[in-house]
Amino acid sequence: MKLIAFTIVLDGEPFIERHLPVFQRLTIPWQWIVVEGAAGNTGDTAWCQPQEPRLSQDGTKEYLDSLVFSKSATILSSTYWRNKTAMCNAALACVKEPCVLMQIDADEIWTAEQLERIIDCFEQMPSLGSIQFACRYFVGPNLILDGRDCYGDYDYEWIRAWRFNPGDKFASHEPPLLCQYGPSVGARMTKGLSRQLDVVFDHFPYFTEAQVAYKEKFYSYAGLLDQWRALQRNKDFPVPLSRFFSHVSGELPKVVKLSGERV
Q1: 0.85 exceeded by pTM
Q2: How much is the average pLDDT of 77-89?
Q3: What span, in angstroms and rounded, lies between the C-alpha atoms of 149 and 35?
Q4: Fold of domain 3-128+158-183
Q5: Per-residue confidence (pLDDT) for residue 45, from 0 to 100
Q6: How far apart, in Å, are the Cα atoms of 84 and each of 10, 23, 88?
Q7: C-alpha angle 169-205-262 in degrees, rounded to nearest 5
Q8: CA-CA distance, 77 to 58, in Å (whole number)?
Q9: pLDDT tens per residue, range 9-18
C-alpha cells in the first residue's frame, strides 16, 4: 500500500526539515503533501485568536520552495486558510487513489521503521480502518511528560493513520475526524495495541521558545512563556506539569527529565 502523509504548517522550523529524510528511507511508495499558511479561527479552532494572513517567517517557506520540483512532495501555500480543517481537506483533494493516509504535524517525528510497520498493519488487517497512537510529549529539550489519559495523552488524541479512499474528508481537525466513504470504515487500533507494536512517535510541541511564544498568543495561554522558562530552570523532577503551566490542572501528567537532549 502507498503511504500519503500530509502536514499543515506555519513556522515549522526546526522540525519541518526532518520529515523528508525519513520518507526517503522508506521501501514503500509514498507521497508528502504540505499545506502552508495561516489558519483562521473558525470551526473547531474558533476558540483560538485570529491570525494575520501570512506565510512562514522562520525559514519554512524557503525550505518548502526548494521542494517544489520534487516528484514526491506536493506544496500548497496560501497566506490565509479558513481554518485548519480546510487546510487538511486541501491536502486530501490532492489524493486520487486508495492509500494509507497519515497526518504528520511539523513537530511530530516518526522513524521509517515505524511508518513501514503502520503500513504493514493495514496490509495484514483488512478490517483495520484507523490507528490511534501514543506519543513521547516534550515540554523542553530534555523534559517529557509521564501519565496516561491526561494532558498530552487524552483518550481521544493522536488518531494519525487511516485507510483512505478518494472522497474522504475531515469534519474536524481537533480532534481529527475523518468522514470515510469507503465500502467499510473499519475498526480502530487502540493506543494500547499500537504501544505494543512500538509505534510511539516523538512530539515536540513545547521544545523551543518560539513555539511557546506562538502558543501563548494563538491559544491565549497568559504567561505561558515565563512559565515554560521557569520549568526549564527547575531542578527537582518528576513534578506535576500543572505547577508550571496554568492551563493544565491535576497531578498528572508529571514532567520527567531525560538524561540527555532528544533532538
Answers
A1: yes
A2: 97
A3: 30
A4: Spore Coat Polysaccharide Biosynthesis Protein SpsA; Chain A (3.90.550)
A5: 86
A6: 11, 24, 6
A7: 125
A8: 15
A9: 999 999 999 9
